[in-house]
Amino acid sequence: MLESSFLNKKPLSRDERIFLQKTARSVVEIQPNIDTVADIVVFLEVLGYTDKTAADNGFTDLFELSKRLYDFIDFYVDPKKSRVVSQSSITTAPTVRRRLSEALVMTFPWLGALAILYVFGVSLWLAWGLPLSIVTALISGVFLGILLTEGPANSFNRLFVFYYNQSNFSEAKRILKRSYYTLGIMLLGITAGLYFFGLLSNIPTQLVTFSIIAAATISTHRISYIPVYGLKKLSQMFLSFAFAFAALLAVFFLLPNLIPITTTRYLVALVTATGVLSIAPIYYNYRIFSTTSHSSEKVLRSQSLNPVLMYDNTVKSRFGVQMWETMHYYVYGTFFFAILFGDRVLSWIFNPVHIANGIALPMVFNAAYHIGADPALLVLLPATIIQYVIMAPIFFQLSKETSLKVTEASKIDDFLKQRYRLLVMLSIIASTIVAAILFAFAPAIVSRLGGAEISVNIMRVAAVSNILISLFAANGIFMLFMNRVKSLAIIAIAGILILGIGGVLLGSQYGFQNIVFAYLATAVSIAILSSISVGKILKLGSSLFFSKYV
User: What is the pTM (predicted TM-score) of this model?
Assistant: First the structure.
């Protein structure tokens, strides 16, 4: 039967052979060892090939193209070099020192913001000394910008890293372009939506403009940093934020004589800090867009890989398919941010003060709530660092200990269970220590920040809640590794529903200070749900691991 099928294959034209040779080389660069036609179909779809692509080059569909490619694949596989690549991917693991430095750098913006909060007694979002109406407008824009870009930042960052690590630089550039197109559409929507909301609520145009500027600034910053985070330029990230904080503080505190109006001086300081932050992303975006595939091969590809023919124009991937495949990451990122900061927004809505500087607003920045809730975020920082240090090398360590053999499934199960227990234990210990400190010294901290007794209670409840949030984060990073993003997204959606419904009921009936108990209920719920989900995952640990990575 196989011989008959082989003899019945139609002769190939010269163009078809050339197309098959180029395509085979592209597939081998992604996966040197391919055993079935089905695997080839999968990798062709990853590269952006469609039935139309196959038809345009003389083949019926992707399946026929894959069967033809099967005859060409072996010509481009170098067994010796494939083994070298496989060995390097297994034994090369980042050191503890490097993982710790990466985690510290990635959390540095939050650490810096919280440090300024404590030293100067100002909001987490650095808006001090300004009229309450302007503070509300600015921070509303910041929250809106982060919320709307959290999902796209997650999706585009994953896609950029995926294609860049393949050395598919043309598609990596295309991803960055699409991220900026998406940003532009979002900013148009934000601008139109805020102006329309301002008209309906009789909010002065000046305040609406402040919100739009804040949203546009933070949105552009987050999208532009995709290549910086994707390439893990740690020193540049640290220096960018350090100099930005220094510039913001220097302009605001050292130039009162030159710029006597506080609002103007703050905006100048903010623009200066934004300019400093923009240097790194401008440079790395320029490098990526200006580098051709041919000239970048020596710099950007590992010397152990086979040399490959790269072209600046490759088959375009389908944007809709890309976004659909990363939708769960999009949803999880967006709703997790909403869980962390949704209670603050609700506290604005149920703030008994709705007149700011003589202007009636639908919601007003609630300093009493922020002074209690914002420092409580410190509980999450050590847990986040520990989680990164533990989970970053898990694939390398697992590969080294088991050699990725299916016959060693029990070893993989034991390793995953042991690593998960360590992850949860250290996360809870670290977050509990910080929460205990905040709980004990809450009156002194709140007094330093200019708060009252109501803020003390909020800080204590929020600190306890964040212990459970750190558990959810630990479960989340483990579920991401095991490719259970859909379950994670569903849990995040459930969490924001609990927070929204509970927060509205408590805020409307018992006052804004009790919204923090809705945050506590949300933390309990998502911690329990994610722990149950991980328990189910661990029962199938080795099977899920092999289905994703082997």
Answer: 0.75
